[in-house]
Amino acid sequence: MPKTYFLPLNKRPSTRRQFLATGGACAAGFAIGCQTPSQKSSKPENKTVRKSRPKKVRLAGIGVGGKGAVDIAGCAKAGAEFVALCDIDKKRLDAAKKRYPRAKTFTDYREMLEEVNDIQGVTISTPDHHHAPAAIRAIEKGLSTFVQKPLTHSIHEARILTLAARQHGVQTLMGNQGHSGNDVRNFCELIWAGAIGPVREAHIWTNRPVWPQALDRPTRQDPVPDWLDWEGFLGPARWRPYVGPGEGSRGRGAYNPFNWRGWWDFGTGALGDMACHLMDPAVWALKLGVPDTVEAGSEGANDETGPEWSIITYEFPSRGEMPPVKVVWYDGGKKPSNELLGLKKDEESPANGSLFIGDAGKLTCGTYGGSPQFTPDSKVQRFPKPDQLLERSPGHYREFVGAINGKPLGNASNFDFAGPFTEMVLLGNLAIRTGRKVEWDTVELNATNMDVSHLVKREYRDGWDV
């Protein structure tokens, strides 16, 4: 039987927000709802019918630099107006203010969400540890919420956001933009048409990390720059002193604004950075749900940072007519062997990609399911173009803005899809951090062979709880 997602009914929610979030947990499964065609209205005779333009969606942006700038610009191009902006980096905030001069500016999103009442939604493009604290506050205000990938910093947070979004009825989207593209949809239809038969294995790899990992915490302490709200950067994480750029750091601080991904207190490592992109074709095409077990090999991981490299193996049970499948993740320079990829010994495989092994053949694809190719040693080398089964998207940011305007899509990466996806991805970090095979119980949100509750649900500093 397929596994379902809900908080344990025998465990009392520990916070008000958790209690609110569990309200709709038993009412529905994690299926994306079907859309029905709207009825055509008859036109009045001898009258010109003017189509009304959709109202300008009013948004606030949390995190305005780097990917945040891209997300804000994308939503603005899709028809949104940004009336509030928030960032702990005042230089980035000033630059964003020049692009959106009508927007009010803040350095604390908690204050912004309390003060600004004329918005319909938010974009959240911060370090991972701020995703859930910002999102839950927005959702509880009834605001539609866009959150960069991975959806959350912890497994528990992913469960809470999914249930809270459903209860409050807001539109949601995770920032794995490939899910909105045609490539991954074409790839799913190819797999579902039986191009390589039942799939038994998938191998997925990335060139991340491209930031330092396998480190001890710095021992020095530097003055905090006047343009940086260090307490705001730390937010829900444990306090630690600011450490600025060091020798050979290319002007980057030990944590902010880029290297935070490798530190467990702030980021989720190479897996968290790229798996919600690269695993999407496998999750969607193979209809992956909850793995039975997850096991990792890695080097250099410690209590502070992720490893230099990891190879993580997820074992999934059968799903309807689909057989059990093994999914293997590689990072830090590790890849499937050339023999497995059907390549010659001296050939170089792509920096990021996926390999699918079925009973009838082998197929590779790019980051978002693009450029599918049969491997040179595949038993099948040609396959007709399959029928279109999935609705095509108007574009990632248009999905979010359009959904707020009443045009939700049935196969977008909303939290009903992104929440369970993120839970599955982050199980790999449990295997890395424990160094043991994780036998997973999705109802109890814990392993059956050891207690990993301290890694499933993290502690928060006062005022930043979820």
Compact overview of the structure:
Helices cover 27% and strands 16% of the residues. It is of the alpha/beta class. The model is unreliable at 1-49 (pLDDT under 50).
Please describe what this structure looks like.
By secondary structure, the protein is of the alpha/beta class. Helices cover 27% and strands 16% of the residues. The chain has 14 helices and 15 strands. The protein has helices at 16-21, 67-77, 90-99, 109-115, 131-140, 155-168, 182-192, 230-234, 269-278, 280-285, 338-341, 396-404, 415-434, 453-456, and strands at 57-62, 80-86, 104-106, 121-124, 144-148, 172-175, 199-205, 293-299, 309-316, 325-331, 353-358, 362-365, 373-374, 438-441, 446-447. Strands 13-12-11-7-10-9-8-14-15 form a nine-stranded mixed beta sheet. It has a six-stranded parallel beta sheet with strand order 3-2-1-4-5-6, with helices on both faces. Helix 2 (67-77) packs across helix 12 (396-404) and helix 6 packs antiparallel against helix 13 (415-434). It is globular. The protein starts with 15 loop residues before the first helix and ends in a 10-residue tail after the last helix.
Supply database-style keywords:
single chain; 466 residues; 27% helix; 15 strands; 14 helices; six-stranded parallel beta sheet; nine-stranded mixed beta sheet
In terms of DSSP E residues, the strand content is 15-25%
Shape: globular
Q: From N to C, what is the helix and strand string?
A: HEHEHEHEHEHEHEHHHEEEHEEEHHEEH
Largest sheet: 9 strands, mixed
Instruction: Give the helix tally.
Output: 14
Instruction: Round the mean pLDDT to the nearest integer and report it.
Output: 90
Radius of gyration: 23 Å
Strands, total number:
15
Percent helix among the residues? 25-40%
Unreliable stretches covering 5 or more consecutive residues? 1-49
Q: How are the strands of the largest sheet arranged? A: 13-12-11-7-10-9-8-14-15
Task: Label the structural class.
Answer: alpha/beta
Distance N to C terminus: 32 Å
